[in-house]
Structure formats: C-alpha cells, structure tokens
What we know:
The chain folds into two domains: 200 residues, Rossmann fold, CATH 3.40.50; 94 residues, no CATH class. Helices cover 20% and strands 19% of the residues. It contains eight helices and 15 strands. The strands form five sheets. Strands 2-1-3-4-6-5 form a six-stranded mixed beta sheet, with helices on both faces. It has a three-stranded antiparallel beta sheet with strand order 13-14-15, with no helix packed on it. A two-stranded antiparallel sheet has the order 7-8. α1 links the parallel β1 and β2. α1 crosses α8. The relative contact order is 0.15.
Amino acid sequence: xKQPIKYFSMFSGIGGFEYGMEQSDYxxxxxxxxxxxxxxxxxxxxxxxxxxxxxxxTRINTEDLPSFEFLVGGFxxxxxxxxxKRKGFDEARGTLFFxxxxxxxxxxxxxxxLENVKGLLSHDRGRTVQTIFRVCDELGYDVSWAxxxxxxxxxxxxxxxxxxxxxxxxxxxxxxxxxPRVDKAVDEPMxxxxxxTRAGRVHKEDEIMNTLSCSGHNGANSxxxxxxxxxxxxxxxxxxxxxxTLSANGGGQGGKTGLYKINxxxxxxxxxxxxxxxxxxxxxxxxxxxxxxxxxxxxxLTPERENKRQNGRRMKDNxxxxxxxxxxxxxxxxxGITVRKLTPVECERLQGFxxxxxxxxxxxxxxxxxxxxxxxxxxxxxxxxxxxxxxMFDEVIESE
Length: 400
C-alpha cells in the first residue's frame, strides 16, 4: 500500500484545495499550510485542526518546513515591477508568487498545482504569466496550464480559472502540456482552455450546462433531490427535502421585505414590467400573480447596484448558471416576481463545499454572513480540484 502524498498548501483560504483533494482517488497528508485572513483561518482550523499554520507566506522560513512532494495554492495576482526584462526569478521578487517560487526552490517538491483568475493570462499584457512560466523553468519544472470552468464540473456557476501544473524534470515524469481529458471514444478536437468533461460527456464553450442535476453535485456530500416532475428548466431541487436550493418564494436575507427596482422586462398584461428587489416598494400582487406557477429562475448580480456588471451583464436568462462568485459582489435570483439574495449555504454549494462549511470557525465561533460570502467568493471550486488532482496523479502513476 502506497504512503499518502505529502503536500504543503499556500494561500489556503477555507480549505478548498484540501476538501477537493479529500474527494479524489488519492490519499494526501498535509505537512502545513499558510493563511493570514482571520475568518478564513478560523474556518480552516475548524475543519483541519491538526494542520500546522505557517502564517504569512512572506515570513515562512523554508528550513522549518518538512519535506513534501506536492505544493498547492491559489495565489493573488500582482504585477511585476520590472516585468518584461527577462530577469526570471529575480523579476518575481516583491510579489506573492515569489513566495511560492522560493518554497519550490528550497524544498523541491515533485509537482505543484496553482490557481488564479483567467485574467492572469492577459495581466500586464501577458508579461506576468510569461514571468511565472520562466521562473518555473529556471527552477527545473515543466509547466502546463488550462482554463477550467466550474459549470463543467457539477455546479451551476460560470467560473473560469486558470490552473498551472508543474512537474519536476528530475523527480517526476508527469505528462507535459496535458489538457482536460474527454472520453477517448469521442473523436473531437480539443482545446486546452474551454473544454471539460462531466460524466463522460463533452461540453463545448457555447453549450449551456444544466443548472442542477439529480446526480451532479459531486464532492459536496449533498446529493440533490428532485422535488417536482417538471423538465430541467422548471425543476426544483433540494439536498434534504427541505427548502429549495434556488426557491421561488425565498424572502430577502435578513428578514427584509421591501423591494427595489433592479430592471425592466417585457410588460405583462396588468403590470409595469419592472423587476424589484429588497429595500423598495413592490407593485401590487394580483390573484393571477399569486396563483401563477413560477417558471423562471434568473441569476442576478448585485441587485442594489444598477450599474454593476459582470462580462457586460447584470441578469441572466432562465436556466443559465450563476455569475462568478467573488469576495465583493452580491448575488440573487429573480423568480418572475421578486429578487432574493443567495444564502451562504447556496454559495457554499456553488463552490462544491458541504452545507454550512463556513457557518462556524474554530471553537464553534459563529461566522457572520458577510464573512461567509467573502470566504466563498475567495475559495476554489472543490469539484474542479478533485478532477484535476485525479488527472494529474493518474498521469504520474502511468508514467512511472
């Protein structure tokens, strides 16, 4: 029986890499992690009380770190002060990526997996990612990358993130320049950016992912139960037979009952066509309105800020996936009558975590909803981590 793969986690947040790795086909052992945010650290420590926190990444003494084979981390994106000068490792100094590079240089793990926003590819006109790849090359790692979208991995969230995989030339024979795999029986050209697999099916970049699936909530320990017999566009699901995940009648979070105008849609027979949200005045509800079956659930971005957009949009169509969760944006759903905020639990589900993962911190410390939203927005989608981990280590095992 093989020993667990020892790993070190940097910029660990609430443990998204850790939970995703736990759901994989491989066994891992954490030798330490690095996180400084008070609330994220408290949530992490609740779930992983035996993991050692090495604190601020800029202050890690690599001589204090045990040996490990695998490094993971979702590092913040920063510009390099002399980007484009081809200074390699020296060029990365003063950035948080340098802290990862420093650990790679001193500890020499066999492989690593890093996560960042898709915009890293164009950051500083592409110089930032070029420097990252150049540094990894200098440190003895062959690197491959791909953009993964969370909606292709069992959660209804449009979240594109770049993942960078590195394999040591001296200690690991992993496949270089690999891409997300599809069923080998499918004879179709593949890209390393927008394609992914789910249950053996190929999803193209212009194809809409099913919003929710009875069997698709991979890795979150909460299979979804279909509550009615409607088709996918009208189906409502729940994890425990209680409140609907995206309910048609869920009121605004915090007990707010007022409604404010957020948009104008096609006018109905007796209504103005206005869409309302919290903290405003609602139109009259007619008997026809009350009895009308709800047929739509539209994602809404930051309802109270009319000019807020994500990729040029503020509302999505029925059956589209949710906007990308961030640490600052608020998210809601419009059911044809009202808009309500997503709950923290729904945000956890959109990232593949079990329900109430962020509800309490260390020593059962309650975490405010504000911090729960922020932590979920900063996290990685655990389902994606699981898929990549299986892919990475399948390649390593095959090459041995």
